[in-house]
Amino acid sequence: MNPEIPHPGALIVIEGIDGSGSTTQSDMLLQWLQRVGIPSVFTCEPSKGPIGGVLRLHLGRQVELGGPEAEALGFAADRMDHIVSEIAPALARGITVVADRYYLSSLAYQALSCDLAWLREINRFALRPDLTVFLSVPVDVGVARFSQRATRERFEEDRDELARIAGMYDTAIGLLREEGEDVQVIDGTRSPGDVHAEIVQLAVAVLQPRYPGVSISVDAHE
Ligand code: TYD
Predict the structure, then answer these.
(1) CATH number of this structure's domain 11-207
(2) What are the pLDDT digits (tens) for 175-220?
(3) Which of 14, 136, 142, 212 has CA atoms 20 to 30 A from the CA of 159?
(4) Which tens digit of pLDDT belongs to each residue from 114-155?
């Protein structure tokens, strides 16, 4: 195995504020991976595991966790469970994992109420992604997009709060980049097809060394 590559599969994370299009783009990326013949799987956080289930109830206001620290620990616990039970086994088998949100979400959303250094600490054992793509959209674009949805979650109510979350994303991205993590910020206001094409280009760089036998077409549309 190539010693530069810690696991045979790639962990690719798609991030952004609510309404940035991370779910649409994760889905399009997965379909492209499958078309070009790269073994791949979609996942998201909060995860579909037991702790993720509680977090979804909390986000939907059906249960209430006691305070921001419990919430942050919940997301971190869900992440470790998600990594051990799903993400790491897939990567070890050479499967590329596309994750709709990961620890960068915690460093942005939970940083509204919790200390950033502490958030980093409780996420210390989370596997580093091979690539994180941050879909940058102005807060008003995000608000306009999710306002059209039927149900609202906890962070989808307050424009000012979302603006602060966007600011925390900038800070956290700066920190991760300083540590050498590959976090790419792209313009998420363009058409889904254009955003997808740029994500494909970025993904190819991490995929090519892992799947030398697959002829990876950069044509996002096909
Ligand atoms: P989202 O991807 O928007 O879910 P949906 O499929 O319902 O659109 O994620 C749910 C919310 O969870 C989102 O507002 C961000 C929040 N979140 C955190 O606050 N911290 C985290 O660590 C994660 C992963 C998500």
Answers:
(1) 3.40.50.300
(2) 999 999 999 999 999 999 999 999 999 999 999 999 998 888 766 5
(3) 14
(4) 999 999 999 999 999 999 999 999 999 998 888 877 666 666
Query: Which protein residue has the closest C-alpha to ligand 1 atom 19?
Result: 109
Closest to 80 (Cα-Cα) out of 117, 30, 46, 39:
46
**Would the CB of 101 count as within 6 Å of ligand 1?**
yes
Contacts of 61 (CB under 8 A, 6+ apart): 154
Q: Whose CA is nearest to atom 14 of ligand 1?
A: 155
Please indicate whether residue 18, judged by its CB atom, sits closer than 6 Å to ligand 1.
yes
42 lines ligand 1 (CB under 6 A): no
**Domain locations in the chain?**
11-207
| Interval 71-100: pLDDT, tens | 999 999 999 999 999 999 999 999 999 999
Residue 70 φ/ψ, nearest 5 degrees: -60, -40
What is the rounded distance in angstroms from the CA atom of residue 130 to the CA atom of residue 85? 19
Assess whether the C-beta atom of 155 lies below 6 angstroms from ligand 1: yes
